[in-house]
Design brief:
Helix content: 25-40%
Radius of gyration: 23 Å
Number of domains: 2
Largest sheet: 7 strands, mixed
Number of helices: 11
Bound molecules: zinc ion
């Protein structure tokens, strides 16, 4: 790219790769204490800290991150034609001009959307994003993303450089819909984990990146909403076991483990499973018949009616 120092491009490429890696580990809720210290770069560290608004790392010539706090609801930020995200900037921010200059040079940014409030805020990352244009009267930047920046792939550097202004409208819309879905999921996860004490309700594992918010009634069913009462905090293993019906939950929130099914998955005779697969015993069969570890407050527990629908298999697609 003409007029852009090589080091600036290198820094941004490193930032996008770093964000892709954070997303791989933490999904759409990266804790501030993981995000803000940034990443090593040329013997120093590029910080990604920004309490709000626009941030320029000291190693760079241009701003790198744009941050939206929880106070600004995302739905207000989608543009009318659903092809860009509206980002309202502060009149006092001297970095606004830097964003404009960088975008005129074709540089991309990291967009951070707060999905969990203080004291331990978490962020969804969309990177790279492009500033397609702005409106000085309303002080709005119009951001767009590549489908790749909202998927699980680290972006190709050439793609990043070329795609900014040539992306077809329908691809922009697809990318935005994915961002919207990711925000919905991140919100659901935050609510469910907070309600259910941030640990797996089967085994009590509390390593946050390994704990999911599972839907009791799956999303594909019209009753499969993102309400807390349709959510279960489950570790990756128990989530998978729940999705494959090895582990089932009855309407009274008691765990049932299907030993026969598990033996079939292990390609073992039912009477050989306990002898030959101690991990299956320890991690699954030992939980059979136990109640889920749930809070007493019914507003924080899965709705027994939704548990019943799932238990009885009365689900539509
Ligand atoms: Zn678990």
């Amino acid at each position: 790219m003409e007029g852009v120092p090589a080091e600036e491009l290198e820094l941004r490429e490193a930032a996008f790769a770093h964000c892709a890696e954070l997303r791989r580990v933490w999904g759409d809720s990266v804790p501030a204490k993981v995000l803000w210290p940034g990443f090593p770069f040329r013997g120093g560290r590029v910080r990604l800290y920004s309490v709000q608004g626009i941030h320029k790392p000291k190693q760079g010539e241009f701003p790198l991150t744009l941050l939206t706090t929880l106070a600004s609801p995302y739905h207000d930020e989608l543009s009318q034609d659903q092809t860009s995200i509206r980002y309202d900037y502060s009149p006092r921010d001297y970095l606004n001009d830097g964003v404009k200059r960088a975008s005129e040079l074709g540089l991309a940014f990291v967009y951070q959307v707060q999905v969990k409030p203080k004291p331990d805020p978490e962020y969804l990352l969309v990177s790279p994003v492009f500033v397609d244009g702005w409106d000085d009267r309303t002080r709005t930047f119009f951001l767009s993303a590549l489908p790749e920046s909202v998927a699980d792939l680290p972006p190709e550097p050439e793609l990043v450089a070329d795609a900014a202004h040539s992306l077809p409208e329908h691809e922009k819309r697809t990318a935005l819909r994915l961002v919207e879905q990711r925000l919905g999921q991140a919100g659901f996860r935050k609510e469910v984990l907070a309600a259910q004490r941030n640990r797996c309700t089967v085994c009590e594992l509390r390593a946050r990146p390994l704990v999911d918010a599972a839907h009791v009634v799956p999303h594909a069913d019209p009753r499969g909403t993102n309400e807390v009462r349709n959510g279960l905090a489950l570790c990756a293993l128990h989530h998978r076991a729940f999705d494959t019906d090895v582990l089932r939950i009855d309407p009274d929130a008691v765990v049932h483990v299907d030993e026969e099914r598990l033996a079939k998955f292990a390609a073992l005779a039912p009477d050989a499973l306990r002898r030959r697969d101690p991990a299956a015993v320890h991690q699954l069969l030992d939980h059979h018949g136990r109640p889920l570890r749930l809070p007493k407050d019914p507003r924080k527990r899965p709705d027994p009616e939704l548990l019943r629908l799932r238990w009885e298999g009365r689900l539509g697609a």
